[in-house]
Amino acid sequence: MLKSGRHRVGEVVQVLEKSQRLAERSTERGLLGHLYNDLGLGYCQLRLFPLAVEAFLQALPLCWVPGEQATVLRNLGMAHNALGNYQEAQEFHQKAADLHGSVGQRWEQGRSFGSLAFALSQLGDHKAARDNYLHALQAARDSGDMKGQWQACEGLGAAAARLGQYDQALKYYKEALAQCQKEPDSVRERLVAKLADTVRTHLAQTSAPGRLQAPGGASQVEGTPAKAGSSAAGAQHRSSSGWEDEEFEEGHQEKKEERSANVPMRPGPGRLERPGPRAHFPFVGRGPPRAEYPSILVPNGPQVNRSSKWPRESLSRSCQRRPMESGICTIV
């Protein structure tokens, strides 16, 4: 139903609610964990993030395998990123990163680091965000995650710009641009805009050392991530474009970071980047997921990931990645 696009939101919600009622009667607790996780992913595609959080919380105690627990934790982080609950998102992504690392899931761990960095950036802790983007970049290199690499570089560029390290920002933006040649034109255009914005700001700072000038025309990011909504309510009503291939985790290409990558910003509710961070929300098989979070990543935000036993998937706004499947998936 979600993939066809021929059904109204109300019809899909009715089916999801019916599935949940049937699940509550089941005695197969192992399967229930997967089912609740899938319900959460369905609600994420509909941008009903509060309901997604409830479903993921029901899935969490039913998933005993570390990799599956990490996947659900990551999905929870993506959903909270989408709602602008960055403090909660930070905690879930940190736990997910630790669990993924404990079982050797380097790809998933890298995406979790990216989503964690996005949440930290939205909380205004750009040094911690930079450190976690560095972890995300190394994990992406270790696991051959090309998308994760350019997303981490983009996040590093934004963090460096906010810290006034413009030479570093230029370096990372250029690296991200060189690695995203197979991505849509919009990604490259965004990076070019950020590069130009950083150059202008750097020149302004150099010519007027005592003045801090805000760059103009900064663009938004989508992934490692994920675009988070500007408010909890807005997250549910945003257009699906907000959840893109960057997904949750992916998404983390932060919405706010994109808005003004070179100027310190106040934290505020954001949307899943395509993390995202995306959202990017992100988050399925052996190779990198195809969706866009975050690091839940449906639309622009996070991607969906499964535990090591399940293929990695990411939800995209129109199932750009792959159709949802049962099993433990994460929002990427």
From TrEMBL:
The keyword Transferase is assigned to this record: no
Question: SMART domains from the entry?
Answer: TPR
Task: Name the segments for region: Disordered.
Answer: 203-326
Q: Which UniProt keywords apply?
A: TPR repeat
Top-level taxon: Eukaryota
Alphabetized Pfam families for the sequence: TPR_12 (PF13424), TPR_7 (PF13176)
Residue ranges with Basic and acidic residues bias: 250-260
Residues in TPR repeats: 70-103, 150-183
* Record-linked InterPro entries: TPR-like_helical_dom_sf, TPR_24, TPR_rpt
> What is the official name of this protein in its record?
Tetratricopeptide repeat domain 24
Q: What is the lineage of its organism?
A: Eukaryota, Metazoa, Chordata, Craniata, Vertebrata
